[in-house]
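ok posting inputs for the acetyl coenzyme *A job
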Amino acid sequence: AIDINKLRGETGAITIDPGYKNSGSCTSNITFLDGEQGILRYRGYSIEDLAEKSNFLEVAYLLIFGELPTAAQIEKFEKDIRKYTLVNEEMKNIIDGFPRTAHPMGVLASLTSALTAFNPKSVNVDNEKEMYEAVCKTMAKFLVIATWTYRKNMGYPLNYYDNTKGYVENFMRLMFELPTGPYKMNPVVVNALDKLFILHADHEQNCSTSTVRMVGSSHAGLFASISSGVSALWGPLHGGANQAVLEMLEAIQKDGGDVEKFLAKAKDKNDPFRLMGFGHRVYKNFDPRARIIKKAADEVLADLGVDDPVLDIAKKLEKAALEDEYFKSRNLYPNVDFYSGIIYRAMGIPTEMFTVLFAIGRLPGWIAQWKEMRVNKEPIGRPRQVYTGSPLRDFTDINNR
Ligand code: ACO
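and the output
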């Protein structure tokens, strides 16, 4: 094992590695990823096994606490999460301050940050009980406020958590149940969503997780660190890709549905357009999550009997890109976001909410990584640079500039 203490301190030399393509920022026991072979494991368990045999809350527990829960532990975990699902009423005033057109990710980042106002005490990570309560609180409140971002946009009254229903079922209820009557739950949809959350739950040192660890390394609190993770996830090159995929598919459809034309645009180095949902920083052969989710996508589409021209475009584009030499030679395959967007659309989730769903799925990973970083007593994150600006200059008076 690498002793992190030995890696500290001044080395004298500074390596330049933009985008940290070859730099490790930490040691971690949480997630194993082999990009060449398309392997993803949480705490040693394969993503395939977890997606098939486990459920989201169990996986959250596994990521955060290191072991799969016993029956008693998971029952207690669910019960303890339920204890914290009420969100401070003053949070509603904060939501009211946003225009209805605000992007849900911006609102979610702000609301997560606002939670610090009602939870000012920082967690003592070495106190197991305190850490456990902070985990339950974060899992509970984040889910509720995430759905409120949608309710606000729609002008619907805000919903409260139903303690008789499971975590993922509650997501659907919190989103869609209206005062006019109970929401009709579709188990195929709930099951697919549970799977999607599992597949998104952690992905080692990706952009948002590195951000959460970096912010937390200054000993900023859990909610503040998670809020920064939400902001990092929002970008179209990261979590925002699932929204960008659907917007791209809609644009292709509006343009007449010629996928070859858009493929050519993506290959043209003078055109900034990229095929959204294709390529990955670490998976250079295939994204194992994409394989699992493609199957789930087929099941959901069949069950819901969806007939959607935009989804037909997705199928055509996937086929054409997989057969194209440019994409093949660069190992550009559909990533998890290509299929997640398709499932979300079939489920009736509005496009602007796609990245919020990613955030709900990624939350246990952020918490687990934040906790690990603090428990390991990692130093504050502070990269170096190589200065390339002007040498020393004489100050010029404003009248002489
Ligand atoms: N469309 C067209 N060309 C692409 C694409 C794409 N989606 N992705 C990469 N390429 C090309 C690049 O132009 C480059 O070509 P070149 O060698 O001729 O210059 C080559 O493939 C390598 O690409 P890089 O940008 O160096 O790869 P990097 O690892 O930096 O980027 C990324 C990975 C950001 C995911 C990129 O593939 C991309 O922009 N994809 C689209 C956005 C997307 O789907 N993001 C979701 C990522 S998954 C997630 O966050 C869960």
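notes: DSSP finds 17 helices and three strands in the chain. Strands lie at 31-34, 39-42, 45-46.
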